[in-house]
Amino acid sequence: MSATPRVGVVVTDTYPAEDPDHDTAPLVTALRARGVAAAPVVWHDATVDWAAHDLLVLRSPWDYPERLTEFLAWLDVAEQATRVLNPPSLVRWNLDKRYLAELADLGVGVVPTTYRTSLDDVRDDLAATAPDAHVVLKPAVSAGARDTGLFRADDPRALDLAGRVLAAGGVVMVQPEVPELSQGREKALYVVDGTLTHAIAKGALLAPGGGLIGGVYAENPQRVDVTAAEAEFALDVVRAVDRATGSGVPLYARVDTVDSVEHGLVLLEAELFEPALNLHVVPEVTDVVASAVVARLG
Fold first, then answer.
1. Which of 81, 113, 131, 251 is most buried by its number of CB atoms within 10 A?
2. pLDDT tens digits along 214-235
3. What's the distance, CA 121 to chain centroid?
4. Residue 204: its pLDDT value, please?
5. Where are the beta strands (DSSP E) in the chain?
6. CATH number at 95-110+180-272
7. Does CATH place domain 6-86 in 3.30.420.10?
8. pLDDT of residue 207
């Protein structure tokens, strides 16, 4: 490693106005204050010399679902050139939400989910659901609620969405609606280098009948308290990820949860390579993240 370590904070080149990257600028500033030559780098910028970096920290490559093949190829290039955190092996595992089934097998509570590769199977799931009950359909590879919909089980638009996902070569996840999610009671619990740092509630996102509330993906992050049970659950999830992948303690993890009357405290997703940390809401956590990055440089 060079006398002045060089860290690339991996981003992309454009963000929607309603979903900006609030994390990279303060993180880069905090790293520079610690003597690190840190700068944002666009993952698909062909002019970047990846080997010139001592470490790449994945932060907000949020256009990866539309460029998945390209992104996977970039991961190969990046890990051959230098060290990447979180590690590409963990990223590849985390890209496909079927990891939830692996974590369930390890004892982590999750929302009951089927993973379907045919429209007939999706149709059977919907037929087995009470017509006036609601279900959520989403692709197994997605981010930012892309191609995710909340529908009555008898709504033909549910099958339309499933058909689009399957036609694109995807796998359809079918889940029952969790009323607490529709009430905006999801909590994102953040674990940095094995320590719980904060929790964020971002509000409800899905509109009944398909699509997003307000028509765009727009979180409303608010800092919230964490119960002892939630804190232990988040750490249990991180430990289960390590058991499933052998990847060790991740630099960062966002553990999305909801405490449901029907299902109990369950994992919605474990975001392990590009979660918004919401450092603009919890600015004091910026130093925690920067210190964790510097520690990994050693």
1. 251
2. 444 556 788 999 999 999 999 9
3. 27
4. 62
5. 6-11, 37-42, 55-58, 83-85, 114-116, 134-139, 149-152, 172-176, 187-192, 195-201, 222-223, 252-260, 264-271
6. 3.30.470.20
7. no
8. 59
What are the domain boundaries of the chain? 6-86, 95-110+180-272, 114-177
Q: Which amino acid is at 53?
A: H
What amino acid occupies position 122?
V
**What's the CATH code, domain 114-177?**
3.30.1490
Cβ-contact 198, 190 below 8 angstroms:
yes
Q: How confident is the model at residue 144 (pLDDT cuts 50, 70, 90)?
A: low
Query: In this predicted structure, what is the pLDDT of residue 131?
Result: 85
Q: Distance between CA atoms of 255 and 11, rounded to whole angstroms?
A: 21
- In the chain, the amino acid numbered 152 is R
Cα 54 to Cα 37, 83, 155, 201, 293: the distances in Å are 10, 7, 52, 34, 11
Question: Which residue shows structure tokens 């727009």?
Answer: 218
Instruction: Report percent pLDDT > 90 for the chain.
Output: 78
CB atoms within 10 A of CB 49: 10
Answer yes or no: same fold for 6-86 and 95-110+180-272: no
